[in-house]
Protein: Formyl-CoA transferase
Organism: Falsiroseomonas stagni DSM 19981
Amino acid sequence: MAEGTGPLAGLRVIELGHFVAAPFCTRLLGDLGADVIKVEPPGAGDPVRQWGARVKGQSAWWSVHARNKRCITLDLKKPRAREIVLRLVARCDVLVENFRPGQLDRLGLSEEALRAARPDLVIARISGYGQDGPQRDRAAFGVIGEAVGGLRHLTNHPPGTTELPPVRVGISIGDSVAGIYAAFGIMAALWKRDAAGRGDGRGRGLDVALTESIFSLLEGALPEYGALGTVRQPTGGGIATAAPTNAYRSRDGIWVLIAANSDPLFRKLATLMGQPELAEDPRFLGNQARVANSAALDEAIGAWAARLEAAELERLLEAADVPATRAYTIADCAADPQFRHRGMVRQVEDAALGPMLHPGIVPLLPDDPGAVRWAGPPVGAHTGEVLAGLLGLSAAEIAALHQEGIC
């Protein structure tokens, strides 16, 4: 396999993850150069291999979800497999898992066992509710984290406007945000362990909860409730604290977002609309007044937008330097010249699926940006490579493990 490039080249991570949160975390680390060894059960492997649209009978998502990872199979219910995991742990800097709390202990991979194998190991645990507390054992996926964390209540239309259920963001954002926090926590723990002149050489554990990851995003909702007793309500396409900021439908039916929520920007927008008097209207003088009268303001902007094609609307707003854009579809994203210029849309050769479009690497470190070295591999593609290369097992030993159903 291609050697890692990027700022994390030389870092080795073992992933005992499945579904989304832990694998998303390790994908970020792998993109920046880490050697990620993903452990899956023999047979079908990670359930995400079966998710989403299919290309040549395989998941297109998997091509991105498991890129830059070395995928091996081990049946963690078998004692011999657990021994192999511990031997691999001894060669790794980080372990990432997202089982329910206590599951690894029941498999014989307790923190004590892991630290016996590698005392300075950084262990990142991702779970629904966290590793302790009265709800730690409850089942959870990302959507549960979004609900408990307060996001699902807010991603809806204003109260009284619809009887439909609260709208989902559209991706597994609860899992992905938890994965980002886990990656951030891993780097903090590695800094504390290894920083030149100040690292203490100690291994550490992180405890990342899906619910808490989402809850931490809610801006001023909690202090507002604590100080004022106000419960922030959903506002549909608008923002509760600034106006005008909303989506307005163009004449050709495309939603265009306009964010003119400062006094100078609102004056520019009002002039562009041919209604400069709006900027002097007492209802719209200052942001607080505009927020209080946002319905009337949105009606006026919406009526103006509805007279123009989306392309013309975008052209006029850009020329006036008012922040605006159509709501991109994935087709718009794929064609966007800015994304293309910065490598955020790139073609990757997938050994199984052929040329595939992948999102680029975030964050961008221009001097050492990392790379997409390979796309998500088949189940167990690197089992032999890893067991031979890291643990020194012979071909006969690996064949015997396969025969016994251990890998």
Notes: The first helix runs from residue 21 to 31.
